[in-house]
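ok new one. same drill as before - structure tokens go in, u give me an amino acid for every spot. 182 of them this time. try not to just spam alanines like last time pls lmao
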């Protein structure tokens, strides 16, 4: 039980910090736009994502968490466009020509429709990079034994947060916002 509370606290702290930084750069408006559909989709594809991400942690720790944000963007984009098609897509359909290695470019260019050297693509890349740097630094500050069970769970929670941040960025880009009713 203590581990679950610790993991949830870690996730909440990281999400709050990333939300603040994305808001300061005007990628978000102080709230995390979210959908149960998107969270459920993450839960379905997370095991496959984690296989790819864990294999890259040692050499590319930022990529391992950052690509989850791009995946969040892609799935949020599909959620808006046609959820009936999107929720049936297999995880590898988000890969680029080189598989996991260029998933970011594939999502930016072929799913979100951004030219890779455009200002919009560069700004997103910079924002995702900042978020990934913060996530990796936050993980390291926890001083958890590398390759331990707890290290895996902290990493998985970090990927989930990056996925949710990426999804929120795309939802805001598509014009979604929270409004008070009544």
């Amino acid at each position: 039980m203590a581990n679950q509370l610790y993991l949830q606290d870690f996730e909440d702290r990281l999400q709050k910090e990333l939300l603040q930084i994305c808001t300061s750069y005007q990628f978000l408006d102080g709230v995390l736009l979210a959908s149960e559909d998107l969270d459920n989709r993450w839960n379905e594809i997370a095991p496959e994502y984690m296989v790819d991400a864990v294999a890259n942690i040692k050499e590319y720790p930022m990529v391992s968490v950052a690509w989850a944000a791009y995946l969040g963007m892609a799935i949020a984009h599909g959620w808006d466009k046609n959820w009936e098609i999107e929720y049936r897509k297999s995880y590898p359909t988000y890969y680029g020509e080189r598989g996991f290695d260029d998933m970011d470019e594939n999502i930016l260019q072929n799913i979100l429709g951004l030219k890779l050297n455009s200002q919009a693509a560069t700004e997103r890349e910079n924002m995702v990079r900042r978020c990934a740097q913060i996530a990796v630094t936050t993980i390291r500050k926890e001083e958890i034994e590398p390759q331990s069970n707890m290290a895996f769970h902290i990493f998985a929670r970090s990927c989930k947060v990056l996925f949710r941040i990426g999804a929120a960025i795309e939802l805001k880009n598509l014009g979604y916002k929270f409004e008070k009713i009544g």
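The radius of gyration is 16 Å. and btw The longest helix spans residues 61-86.
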